[in-house]
Every structure is written in structure tokens, then in C-alpha cells.
Amino acid sequence: MCSWCWGFHPVMEAMREQYSDRYDFSLVVGGLRTKGEMPWDAAAKTRLKATWQQVADTTGQHFTEKLFERDNFEYDTYPACKAVVTVRELWGDAASFAYLARIQRAFYIDGADITDLQTLKSYLDPEKEEEFVTFYESERAEVLMRHDFSKARSMGANAFPSVVRIDSDGHMVCRKGYQRIDEIIS
User: What are the DSSP calls for 103-172, one per residue?
Assistant: First the structure.
């Protein structure tokens, strides 16, 4: 539910496609906005619309305005973060990237409420839904998600999106904020 991360999606996918033979790619969720941090009022909607327009202008990604038609909405990234962590834990990194793409598209293009567990599970194959819900509701999912939040901060990823490269000696380089692929690679 980070609009700059949605804008970054094509860059991330291009990096994964071009450099998967040289790097392992993993998602770490940062917990951008959790419960109660953003009142849903006219001022918030205006700020959010302006940000989404800036992201669209910069990245070429599309956005729906369906969200702004809602009278009530809790802009809470917690459920989506926990869902991505659940998918990553159950089915691996590749599955988490694919799932992230589905729920980002659902939110930003279709206007789906990805703060809702029923909605989140609907972007999985039906035979995986029960296992997903069981793990999502577990203490382990909660612990792993909070670990991701801490890990992101410890790697310097305090702006989203961030790309962290870790070399074989464990040295980290963190590139913060939206960047084109050529900027990251340089």
C-alpha cells in the first residue's frame, strides 16, 4: 500500500528478470502505515491524490480513484504486510513477489480493500486459502512480520521503496526511495 512501491514495481521486476542469475531477491516488508496513523478525511484524501498523481507522472504506473469514493477507510498496511510475509514463509520468495504484484494491482487499479483478510486470501489459488489463513492468524506470522519491520530499519530502509544489496562479506548498500533501474545499477 505504498504508492511509490507500486510505482517501483516495473523496476523491481526488470531487476529480477535481468539479474536473477547474479543475485537472490527477497522481499522485506517495512510497515509503512499501521492502524490509526492516517485519519480518512478530505485533507488526507487530497494529499494522497496528489502523491498518487506524482507517482503516476514519475513512473507511468496507473491508479484508480475508487478509494477516494469511500467515506470510511483505514489506510492500514499491516494486513497486506502480514499477507506478503505469510506467502513468503509458506511458498517462498518467488511466490511472495507474484502475490505482492496481485494485491498491489488489486488496490491501485481495481480499488480492492486489501486491508480485509477475505480479500487478501482471494488472490491465492483456492486450494491454498485455508493454509494461508491458518498461518496468517498465527503468532509466527506476527513475529515474522515484526521481524521484517525491524530488519528493514536495521538495513537502513527507512524510506520506501528501498533496495538493499548485501555482498558475500555481509556489507550492505541501501538505495532509498524510487529510482530507475539505471540509477540503481550505477
Answer: HHHIIIII---TTSHHHHHTTS-GGGHHHHHHHHTSHHHHHHHHHHHHHHHHTT--SSSEEEEE-TT--E
pLDDT confidence of residue 185: 84
Q: Is residue 175 within a helix (H) or strand (E), and if so which, with residue range?
A: strand 172-176
- What dihedral do alpha carbons 138, 139, 140, 142 form, nearest 10°? 100
Tell me if 6 sits within 8 A of 51, measured CB to CB: no
Q: Which helix (H) or strand (E) holds 18?
A: helix 3-19
The 10s digit of each residue's pLDDT in 40-96 is 899 999 999 999 999 999 999 999 999 999 999 888 889 999 999 999 999 999 999
Residue 91 and residue 103: Cα distance in Å, rounded? Answer: 16
- The angle subtended at Cα 34 by Cα 110 and Cα 61, nearest 5°, is 35
For the chain, the distance separating the N- and C-terminal CA atoms, rounded to the nearest angstrom, is 28
CA distance linking residue 138 with residue 156, whole number of Å: 28
Task: List domains and CATH numbers for the chain.
Answer: 3-185 (3.40.30.10)
Given this model, what pLDDT does residue 35 score? Answer: 67
Closest CA to 84 of 126, 27, 35, 8: 27
Whether 57 contacts 178, CB under 8 Å? no
